[in-house]
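User: For my dataset I need records formatted as: sequence, then structure tokens, nothing else. Please produce one.
Assistant:
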Amino acid sequence: MTDVRQAPVHALLTDGRTVRIRRADYRDRAAVRRLYEEMSPENLRQRFFTVGRASAAQAADRVADAGPARPGYCALAAEHADRLVGLVEYEVVPPGTTAEISLAVAEGWHHRGVATLLVEHLADAARAAGVTAFTADALSDNHELRTVFRDLGLHVLPHYDGPEVSWTVRLTEDEGYLSAVDTRGRTADVVSLRPLLQPHSVAVIGAGRKPGSLGRAILRNICRGSFGGRVFAVHPEVSSISGVHAYPSVTALPEVPDLAVIAVPAPAVPQTAEACGKAGVRALLVVSSGLDAHQAGGLTGACRRYDMRLAGPECLGLANTDESVRLDATFAANHPSPGTAGVAVQSGGVGIALLDGLSRLGIGVSSFASLGDKYDVSGNDMLQWWESDGRTELALLHLESFGNPRAFSRTARRVSRRMPVLTVDAGRSETGRRTAPTVTRQALFTQAGITATHSMAELLDTAALLHSQPLPSGTKVAVVSNTAGGGVLATDACADMGLSVPALGTNLIDELLTLLPAGATATNPVDTTAAVSEKQLRACVERLTAHGAVDAVLVTLVPTAVAAATGDDLVRSLTAAPGPLPRPVVAVLPAQAARVELLAARDEHKVPAYCDAQDAARALAHAAARSRWLAQPPSPIPELADVETHRARDLVAAFLDDNPEGGWLDPQAIATLLGCYGVPQLPWAWARDEDEAVAAAQRLAGSDGRVVMKAHWPGLLHKSEQHAVHLDLHNAAQVRAAHRDLVARFGDRLTGVVVQPLAERGTEWFAGVKQDEVFGPLVAFGLGGTATELLADRTARLAPLTGHDVRELITSPRTTPLLFGYAGSPTADVEALEQVLHRLSRMACDLPQLAQADLNPVLSGPRGVSVLDVRVRLEPRHAHDPYLRRLR
């Protein structure tokens, strides 16, 4: 169910304007009539096949007369500045899976994406109502409608019949459709952000008389940063601030600025934003803090009404170092250095630290945004900006929250293919987990290819390497040192970070020994001895990077009297190559004061140098992980056969009708639900009494005649802990005895028992789903059975799962070798296990009411997999399409 069906949403058009999309109803009669009456004769002909105006009244009546008494009809309106600029409708055609669609765009509003945006939202509403296809009749020369359907990204089939054409649009949301939505969203987003990040003029509102005010500091930075456009100050009482002419109000400015910086007290923010919007300002940067809910609503409302994008409030500011812009609208002490790193943070303090660190390293920034409370512009927006700006080569994020994690993950996954995206994995502590669950956050980062570090220092360590060196193709490292002890420490650091320091081949060792001084060893680590010269060290490193025996070279050096006496600069040897070496080289210089530096060569080739081997090895491990992620080709979400989504949704709806607050499904309902998704279950039968249990055992007993009996009552979760399971029952007498035992111990709580044949030998696994309120469905996999909670050997990924996601889920647990015959365990049918996870992912995405599903154990063996026990909990929750275009 789309948000539009409960409340209006806002979304961007291709020209950056904001429209409000909502349900149309009886109150829109006059607006709909005016929409059609103002159309040109040609547009009327294309819409109604006639130029007569009578159709306008009929169309208005159709919208106004719709309501609960008219099921199968839906109309959505697009508004801008309280004017109806677009209308789209569907009406279901019996038997109810196809709907006829019609759409109209106001005169003067064509070619801005109004129609496409409305169709996207209508398609979402239709899918929720069980509609699988739209049909539309049009004149053959209606090229605009043809363009709308062609560019949707959905499967469209035209059927021509003389002067008319009938269109059939399949509403399946596949990768092609989502990619088309991505492209449209990115185009609109970038256009809307230009006034914010590439303004031609800026006005600072609230630059106080005191030198210490935030507004005045920002105004000073804009002026001293050589901003390429015009700068204005707005102050009701003074004529000049910091040498900038001040005007009493926004309306008194000689021109309308693209960007307004608001640094007034919180109570004045909504009124100031409203004045900016009325004047035609296109973007706001709000550094004011302490807004209450009413003030926040006034600020965002003004931005939506007047097409303004908003950074903040309560933020450090923003900057763009592009030569044509040179905007420093921050109150940081130092101007950001020009460079290639895009930076987005929520915390101003973190922002200042990153700006200073990147400047010190010589990486610099392309653009910087402090997002503060993120009322509007988010990390997702900034990723799309950097993807398109032609300058950014490295993206650094420090986000404390995610407004739309699944949309962010999709964007980040795409951007990570083009440039490294790094973040600090904030929120690992008990306090941090209250707002950012560790497992879900890590799953998001892993799937999206984001390099997640544990600290700001580690972030800069890794950025230095990724900025300056090629990626390693693997994890094999050659350690080179001019002291034996330094080599040992570096080797240990590599091992700690999951890197290997392999022994080198005999031929390579012989080659290296011919390059190094007498007494050197070259088995790995390579001990050059203190007598090594600058030339010899350079030749050694160049040979190692060219050979291919290793994927990276770590060189650890300490100053010696030998080098000082000969005038050799060993550090210089690392940057003396005529250009970048084919494999990454990192230096460890324990005598270095800074944690990390970039050693520069004559041709701008740089080598990262760390004061600690642990930091160097950790940065190399992050680079190797990125290389491994990039080596995986983009993986689609597979199509699944034999899925009955509508039947599953009907089951869920019926259960929640009877249980409005939600609850646990009984075994029969669980079996039906799993059957809708083709999840294989061990045969079972439900028995209400002793005789039914015996009859079930006789039907289900395998060749050896053995069965299992499990107690059931609503809310029973851990059967083994409750001793509510009887195993290995051989005959009717044992079945009766087991049933009597359960009745005697659990009494009236017992609503029945489940009887199953004794499962064949196999390895027990856990597969499950948990619906996160923020991140959506999370699919988990790991070792199952009674020890699953104790060992906690599980990994998780956000649904929907791609083929690569599922393979990572299966291979990430520590106990994965059990799938492949470790210690005599039966080799599993991995493909069948992958299918279970894909089907569980599809179930979780189809059914947002699926709060929890635990499949434990899932028995894997060489002949397939089967689910032995399941528990499922449903909760009332509306569907929410995370990829539908809308603003926060």
